[in-house]
Amino acid sequence: QIRGVALQFRDEEPGALVDREGGQKRREGIMAQLLNRLRAEERIAGVEFWHSPERCGWLMKQGEYIKTWRRRWFILKQGKIFWFKTEEVGPSSIPRGVVDISRCLSIKGAEDVINRAHAFELSTHSETMFFIADSDKVTASNAGTAVAGSRTDPSSLSLDRQEKEEWISSVGRAIVRQSKSVVDDYGSY
């Protein structure tokens, strides 16, 4: 049960014991996803992430359980980083995940750590997340060329480098703002 709602999987009868190989792990994975979704909904309360973000854009993010790289749309707003499957985000959108900046300790380049160009890492007390800048920006200088935006196009690689630096800078400023507000709150006691 989650919040008083009984969950039943399609392939089992009520009260059935899990006896199929892999069934338990699949169910545990589904339960973990549901709990993560509920926690994310609690963390987004009051943040209009779909309106006037501080920063937004495509990044590659490594999966939490299955360590594959997935392209996600990221939004930084009000001390939180949200990510979605698509850039079409509105009031009814549910983030795939949320990071509270107040939990973050540092953000820095990580090309040498994961051997990927334009990589950076975000560290909290409990985990380190890795991201790769993935710019989809089209500039006036590359808009007319057939290969503009491709991974081999030098202007695209430069945009990815710039995108990485801008994310590090934006999130770094947000971390400093959050830490200052904590210090200010502590000093008022």
UniProtKB/TrEMBL annotation:
PH domain boundaries: 52-176
InterPro entries: PH-like_dom_sf, PH_domain, PI-Interact_SigTrans_Reg
UniProt xrefs under PANTHER family: PROTEIN OPY1, TANDEM PH DOMAIN CONTAINING PROTEIN
Origin: domain of life: Eukaryota
Name of the protein this chain belongs to: PH domain-containing protein
